[in-house]
Write a structure and sequence with these properties.
CATH superfamily of the largest domain: NAD(P)-binding Rossmann-like Domain
Strand content: 5-15%
Strand order of the largest sheet: 3-2-1-4-5-6-7
CATH architecture of the largest domain: 3-Layer(aba) Sandwich
Number of domains: 2
Oligomer: single chain
Bound molecules: nicotinamide-adenine-dinucleotide
CATH class of the largest domain: Alpha Beta
Largest sheet: 7 strands, parallel
Distance between the termini: 49 Å
CATH topology of the largest domain: Rossmann fold
Helix content: 40-55%
Structural class: alpha/beta
Number of strands: 7
Length: 278
């Protein structure tokens, strides 16, 4: 094997099957397309079936293999049905990306909504979506990995996983729980099932998508809010992320190049988490 072919083989994942939850969202769509461009068959899960199908159709139009599924990641029965459907269409799942997540206005403090008056239903929903959704999908799609003694799970964490951001206590705690669970599951899978099952997380910095637009930009002026300006001032690379910025890290984590890497959280944040502010 030539050096060049060896180097390429480290990143070869062609022919594998991936499931990406939240694959119709701002970040998930780019990750789904990145996996498809690497030759992976991709099942996109979203709670909005038509949005999942739209991303799948985009991939198919470019010559890839994909399937769009409508399913709520906190509903175990719906996940089991999705699992059957995906496996029948695309074969056994090799890769799971737990991307479904987000925050809600009712779980966010503001001048009009104090911590003491946060909406309990919104708090529960944010925690369930970000943490329980990740855990439940790992149960449903990780079982076949345990049986086949191989596979990769990549959870989508957040800067909140490392240190909490102001105003969003449920989302912060849920994303911290996601990194804790990433480490737990990495150890569990390696010890109980196979060292060839790896579990890692990506902690994106700040990317403008539907879930945070109301926090980072002013709906009327279109400019940044004070919070958006503070984020930029604390990002050494001086810009918000673009969804495609996540693709290289994802492809590395699920490829043989990362075969001895498990239980880590990789910040993709333009330096935000490294900067003390001074
Ligand atoms: N945008 C950012 O700056 C940022 C930063 C750090 C982490 N994240 C995380 O990245 C992931 C993607 O976020 P995004 O910015 O693309 O958000 P987004 O709102 O654009 O996309 C969220 C996706 O999750 C799906 N989803 C939501 N609830 C669901 C449910 N109950 N069941 C199934 N699917 C559901 C939506 O359909 C959508 O596909 C989330 O986990 C988010 O917390 C985002």
């Amino acid at each position: 094997m030539s050096d060049e072919i060896y180097a390429q083989s480290l990143f070869t994942i062609k022919g594998q099957t991936a499931v990406i939850t939240g694959g119709s969202g701002g970040l998930g769509r780019a990750m789904a397309q990145g996996l498809a461009q690497a030759g992976v068959k991709v099942a996109i899960i979203s709670q909005h079936e038509e949005k999942a199908r739209r991303v799948a159709d985009e991939i198919i139009a470019r010559g890839g293999e994909a399937l769009g599924i409508g399913c709520d990641v906190v509903e175990q029965d719906a996940l089991l049905t999705a699992y059957e459907h995906i496996t029948a269409a695309l074969g056994p799942v090799d890769i799971l990306v737990n991307g479904a997540g987000g925050n809600q206005a009712g779980a966010t403090t503001s001048p009009d909504l104090s911590f003491f008056d946060l909406d309990n239903a919104a708090i529960d929903r944010v925690f369930a979506l970000n943490f329980s959704g990740t855990l439940k999908c790992s149960q449903v799609f990780g079982r076949v990995m345990a049986e086949r003694k191989q596979g990769c799970i990549v959870n989508i964490a957040s800067m909140n996983s490392l240190r909490p951001l102001t105003r969003i206590p449920a989302y912060s705690a849920a994303k911290a729980a996601v990194t804790n669970f990433t480490q737990w599951l990495a150890v569990h899978m390696a010890q109980e099932y196979s060292p060839q099952i790896r579990v890692n997380a990506i902690a994106p910095g700040f990317f403008l998508t539907d879930q945070n637009r109301f926090l980072l930009t002013d709906a009327q002026s279109g400019g940044y809010t004070a919070r958006g300006e503070t984020i930029l001032a604390h990002t050494p690379m001086q810009r918000l992320g673009e969804a495609e910025d996540l693709v290289g890290t994802l492809l590395w984590l699920v490829s043989p190049a990362a075969r001895f890497v498990t239980g880590i959280v990789v910040p993709v944040d333009g330096g935000f988490s490294a900067f003390s502010g001074v």
